[in-house]
User: Fold these one by one.
Assistant:
Number 1:
Amino acid sequence: MKEEVLNYFRNLLVLQRRRLHSSAFRTVSEMKKEEGQLSDPLDRAVVELDRQMELSIRGRERSDLQDIYQALIRIERGSFGVCDLCGMPISEQRLMARPTTLLCVECQQRQESISVRMNRWAFRDGQRTSSESFGD
């Protein structure tokens, strides 16, 4: 991959990382401000529900941050944009859509197909096991 393309993705990932860090910092700051301000139980319940949703979002973002760090490491090691399974280059179009991806389109589709088949098999196996336990 050309150095200018790698620099583009490095800058994109760094920008995404900054946004996620900023969002996390803002969440913590807002939660600290809200502590102990509400006396009405219903208001506290609504704030707590909002807080739980916010923390859930931050949990997903934490996973995204880990993916971003790993992508930046792959850029530094020279393995960015190479499929982890087949070793072929990942298209720039795919990297534009998801710069943290580890798989080319073909390998991703193969992985998803296997996952769907495994879920179907597990569901059918679970169905069979359940009906057998009821004497059907």
Number 2:
Amino acid sequence: MKIGQKVRVARILDRLSGDASDKVGQMGVVKDYKMTDGSGVGVVVAFNDNSSSWFFEDELEGRR
């Protein structure tokens, strides 16, 4: 995933946060990277409603 890339939230795998799960199916833009609990890197996605949330790369589908 690259900063500025459009992505769609495909699923939520490991978190029970209602805010993140509300974004499944929505399109957003990758804005930044986030270090997770040591098991990898997540990406911060910004949405049209001015909200943002972080996701693991395998939770997102990239658009070119």
Number 3:
Amino acid sequence: MTRTPEEMKDLSLLGHKTAYRSDYAPEVLESFPNKHPGRDYFVKFNCPEFTSLCPMTGQPDFANITISYVPDERLVESKSLKLYLFSFRNHGDFHEDCVNVILEDLVGLLSPKYIEVWGRFAPRGGLSIDPYANWGKPGTVWEKTAADRLRLHDLSPELVNYR
């Protein structure tokens, strides 16, 4: 389905020259109306080139960030999401914090029915860290889904194989 210019009028990044931020910039996130709010469906983003900085050493950390959500009234605009994730490049935070901050920012922007963020960080010093966080809209079936998904999250762990 093609979006009308009226539906896209509030998007400032799409179709314009890109300015890359040098540090964490949640304000670049933009959203637009979901044309199918009555239907539950997943939207999944994979960012295999996510980078941030270790807050202790300043060394770069590399990860594949996966964001999967069931939208309600709003969808995240993908270019703004790319710029937002890129803004972590010079941001010093622990892996667990990055994943939780991404989750919180997207919940604040979209108020989705359900969302999960999973970071698969490359090993440093022989150890990889894979934080996972999720959220389900309170008072809905998705709240229970979030609790169940978190409780059963890693019963069948993936093969890490040094990424």
